[in-house]
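F.,

This is the one I mentioned.
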């Protein structure tokens, strides 16, 4: 759902010795989930991950399918959940991340309710994705997301409430 574009963003900057890429040096990005059946695309993601890893600035790990407990641990120990999707009508990973107190980094194509947009960063794909990710990482590590995502989610992101708000939002979109 956009992993290839996301990974390509790093490779495009490798030759320029980008200051933004240097700010992310040592960061590990974990891609979790299964191949959706498009083996050609999955092979491309693996190839791009290996290329990013060879450059040595950022580490990409392909985790495959994780059980709920491992996924919750991954969310809770991260500085944020990245969903670089071109079309995502059900951004479940973002809501799961909020419950584990993780802010998000998503594309404008991710259909998030306006109710939760202040709990993360929405990226403009036409601008430097790497710069925006570096800013997000710095801001998140510094405690910049003033609202506690978990507390907010426990109050406002119940299944019935999310469904109702999503229906309202899509009706007016």
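My design for it:
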């Amino acid at each position: 759902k956009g992993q290839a574009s996301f990974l390509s963003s790093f490779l495009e900057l490798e030759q320029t010795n980008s200051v933004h890429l240097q700010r992310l040096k040592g960061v590990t990005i974990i891609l979790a989930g299964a191949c959706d059946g498009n083996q050609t695309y999955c092979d491309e993601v693996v190839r791009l991950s290996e290329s990013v890893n060879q450059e040595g600035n950022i580490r990409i790990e392909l985790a495959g399918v994780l059980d709920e407990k491992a996924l919750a641990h991954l969310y809770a120990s991260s500085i944020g959940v990245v969903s670089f999707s071109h079309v995502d009508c059900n951004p479940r990973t973002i809501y799961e991340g909020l419950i584990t107190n993780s802010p998000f980094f998503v594309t404008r194509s991710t259909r998030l309710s306006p109710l939760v947009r202040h709990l993360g960063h929405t990226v403009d794909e036409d601008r430097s994705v790497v710069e925006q990710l570096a800013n997000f990482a710095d801001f998140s590590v510094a405690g910049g997301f003033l609202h506690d995502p978990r507390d907010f989610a426990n109050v406002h992101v119940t299944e019935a409430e999310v469904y109702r708000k999503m229906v309202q939002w899509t009706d007016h979109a």
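The longest strand covers residues 59-64.

Talk soon.
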